[in-house]
Amino acid sequence: MMVLDKTVDLNCDLGEGYPNDVELMRLITSANIACGYHAGDPDTMRYAIELAIENDVAIGAHPGYKDKTNFGRTAMSLTFGEIHDIVTDQILALRHLCESSGTKLHHVKPHGALYNQAARDREIAAAIVEGVRAVDPKLVLYGLSGSIMIEEAERVGLRTASEVFADRTYLSDGTLTPRTSPNALITDEDASITQVMDMVKYGRVRSLDAIMVPITAETICIHGDGEHAVRFARNVRRSLSEAGISIAPPLHNS
After folding, report:
1. CB contact set of 114 (below 8 Å; sequence gap of 6+)
2. pLDDT of 2 strictly over 60
3. Greatest CA separation found in the chain?
4. Which of 38, 67, 109, 127 could bridge to 142 as Cys pair (CB 3.0-4.6 Å)?
């Protein structure tokens, strides 16, 4: 058995109205909590924070577009200032609830269309980065591995976590296959484990057109709304452990 001296984070998008939050919170090391724009409300945010505290899970804000009808997965065209403001508003809302519960906010991971647009659009990425930095420059920004958002965050000195996905397929440019395309989601558990272990062990992912794309795996995402989310999380965690890979959230900036 190959044993690696490596640590990765296992994150999940939670507080979005799906029934698996309790089970998933026991399996992950960081949670991205919906902040009321694409899903959730103050009550669901408080509940997710309480679950995270109980399970010693790092808490992150999961800001998205204000579009519950489309679950924040429809691209929008907003100005730099508008994106900056929706990001800061959502981070501040969750931070306030964290402080009320006696805990701290650890990271920020944009949601859905906002995340995907920021992966390739420098202005959107910069607006998100500046929003995070305005609230707290010690927060960790989770972003797609190899993306413009990671570049922008590193440019201004934010701590980043390069994210990879256990339940999504990739294109040959390293971006995620759009959800509107066939085969965007991975539903087979064995295929999910194979992809995760390739990314973590070897720093690569096999694209849909069979190209091996270089990738940096610092945090692994499993979507909480996925049909197989709990099984995927359990199997990924077990496979990482069997390979001697530690699981822990990324460190803050000092």
Report:
1. 63, 64, 65, 72, 76, 83, 124, 128
2. no
3. 51
4. 109
Per-residue pLDDT of 106-123, as tens digits, reads 999 999 999 999 999 999
* Residues 173, 168: Cα–Cα separation, whole Å: 14
How far is Cα 169 from Cα 141, in angstroms, rounded to an integer? 22
Is residue 168 classed as helix, strand or coil in its secondary structure? strand
Q: Cβ–Cβ contacts within 10 Å for residue 45, how many? A: 25
CA-based nearest residue to 165, from 139, 184, 140: 184
Looking at this protein, which amino acid is placed at residue 242? E
pTM given for the model: 0.95
What's the confidence (pLDDT) of residue 4?
Answer: 59
- Nearest residue to 49 (alpha-carbon basis) of 89, 105, 91: 105
Residue among 74, 59, 76 at smallest CA distance from 13: 59
Q: Which of 21, 73, 76, 78 is nearest to 47 (CA)?
A: 21
Q: In this structure, how many other beta carbons lie within 10 angstroms of the beta carbon of residue 231?
A: 14
The separation between the first and the last C-alpha atoms of the chain, rounded to the nearest angstrom, is 36
- Radius of gyration for the chain, computed over Cα atoms and rounded to the nearest angstrom: 17
Instruction: Please check the confidence at residue 54 and state whether its pLDDT lies above 70.
Output: yes
Q: What is the mean pLDDT of residues 143-155?
A: 98
Does residue 253 surpass a pLDDT of 70?
A: no
> Can you state the percent helix, strand and coil of the chain, rounding each to 5?
40, 20, 40
CA–CA gap between residue 31 and residue 13 (Å, rounded): 6
Backbone phi, psi, residue 82, to 5°: -65, -40
